[in-house]
Amino acid sequence: MADMEKLYEAVLGGKLEPAVEVTREAIAEGADPKEIINGSMIPAMEEIGKRFQEGKAFVPQLLLSARAMKGALELLKPLLKGDASASVGKVVIGTVKGDLHDIGKNLVASMLEGCGFEVINIGIDVPAEKFVAAVQESGADILCMSALLTTTMTYMKTVIEALEAAGLRDKVKVMVGGAPINRHYAEQIGADGYSDNANSAVLKAKELLGVA
Question: What pTM value is reported for the model?
Fold first, then answer.
């Protein structure tokens, strides 16, 4: 039998090859993909997130864990096709127009994916109409926006106004984050949530959707 404890340790330790290997073994033995994700992979990502918040792990470790998780997830995705219950919720994420920073955004995207969300990452320098179109097409539950510059953070309000104009604002939760953003600013522009790191972004997203 594939050792699920080994998978947990591989994702927690950011070891891509062992994570993929154990996942392959588990699939070959007919293990339930959701069991693999919920039983080993998500707990490992939650643990590394917790350590990060406590200052016991750092961004490189988070990125490695997310990479290991992603590698294993790629093998499982085809087996989950069409299984809506396999996803906690759907998230569209991007960095706003004029801003080319993507490390923080990608880390949040990986953590969300690692914790069971379906993530549509629409990249950097994203104009309002692209955010709106992505939300419309995907039927996303949450829209996450990132900005790392004080000059681009004001664009988040433009996106929220565009969602309102398209009649989508009450259908999607809006989360914002990035170095210059704080809770006060998030409230000021009418966002539903704010987070200052990848782990708290996952907790906030779950809270907004009412999932444990």
Answer: 0.78
Contact 33, 79 (CB under 8 A): yes
Mean per-residue pLDDT of the chain: 92
DSSP notation for the chain: ---HHHHHHHHHTT-HHHHHHHHHHHHHTT--HHHHIIIIIHHHHHHHHHHHHTTSS-HHHHHHHHHHHHHHHHHHHHHHTT-GGG-S-EEEEEEBTT----HHHHHHHHHHHHTT-EEEE--SSB-HHHHHHHHHHHT-SEEEEE--SHHHHTHHHHHHHHHHHTT-GGGSEEEEESTT--HHHHHHTT-SEEESSHHHHHHHHHHHHT--
Domain 4-84 has CATH 1.10.1240.10: yes
Ordered by start, the domain boundaries in the chain are 4-84, 87-209
CATH topology of domain 87-209: Rossmann fold (3.40.50)
Q: Tell me, what amino acid is at 43?
A: P
CA-based nearest residue to 176, from 190, 160, 154, 191: 191
Amino acid making up residue 98: G
Digit-coded pLDDT (tens) for 29-66: 999 988 898 899 989 988 998 898 899 998 899 889 98
